[in-house]
Amino acid sequence: MRWVRNLWLPPLAGLVLTVLFHEGTHGLAYRYFGYDIEYGVSWNGFYTAAPGQLHGKLESIAIAAAPLVLVTPVGVAYLFAPIQPLAQVGLYLLVLNTAGSIADLEQIGRLLALPRETLLCDGDQTYIYLPVEAA
Fold first, then answer.
1. Radius of gyration of the chain from its Cα atoms, rounded to whole angstroms
2. Cα torsion at 121, 39, 100, 12 (round to 10°)?
3. Which residues pair with 56 in a beta bridge?
4. Mean of the per-residue pLDDT values for the chain?
5. 34 — alpha (psi -120 to 50), left (phi > 0) or beta?
6. Which of 10, 55, 73, 75 might form a disulfide with 93, Cβ 3.0–4.6 angstroms?
7. DSSP string, 26-86
8. Which strand (E) or helix (H) includes residue 127?
9. pLDDT digits over 28-66, tens only?
């Protein structure tokens, strides 16, 4: 029955690592810009936020892009692991992180359409403050 255990272990490890790396990378990006963060779970998944703190459009784009930019090389490195289950974990990490980044990419697309001076604030939802001349 050892082979059965080996079948579910890489996908499970890939899922856990993806959540930790993906949300942790958002957290590192928030910290880089000096924000206090919180991690949580909501009805639509895991999240990282800086509640009640205003952040700019460009910072928000960098924070949203961080997991795709930083976790992808980790997943690629795992693909070359000499131990096959580790390579499988890398594959799951790449696929799941990329899939998990879809909402981040959507947010980036929406932010790019807004004026540079736009501010955002996390709360029970994300609040977007447009500059007066753009309102």
1. 17
2. 180
3. 119
4. 88
5. left
6. 75
7. HHHHHHHTT---EEEEETTEEEEE-BT-EEEHHHHHHHHHHHHHHHHHHHHHHHT-SSHHH
8. strand 126-129
9. 999 999 999 999 888 878 889 999 999 999 999 999 999
Q: Contact 122/36 with Cβ under 8 angstroms? A: no
Domain extents for the chain? 2-134
98 confidence band (pLDDT: 50, 70, 90): very high
Q: Please tell me which residue, 59 or 126, carries the higher pLDDT value.
A: 59
Q: Beta strand pairing status for 54-56 and 119-122? A: antiparallel
CA distance linking residue 11 with residue 86, whole number of Å: 10
